[in-house]
Specification:
Length: 88
Amino acid sequence: MNMIINESLRLYPPPPSLKHEAKLGKFNVPANTTLVIPTLSIHHDTKIWQKDAQLFKPKRFSEGLLKLRTTTRQYFFPSVWGLKVAWA
């Protein structure tokens, strides 16, 4: 079930926005800031997700999020929580 949810969020991500203050890498983002991140473009990029980026393939996540290739994992933004994990 987790694989299906993650792959669905990869193909159809919710729009990112922050309600609370967050730290993204070395940057502090104030509360109520709207982030404009091209999540859909990133999640469909064949350089990151390989040639089948447009296809629904839950097996991409068969080993869990932490086992994704490091370069792929840092470009997976399923939600604002994903941004904190990916850029922290």
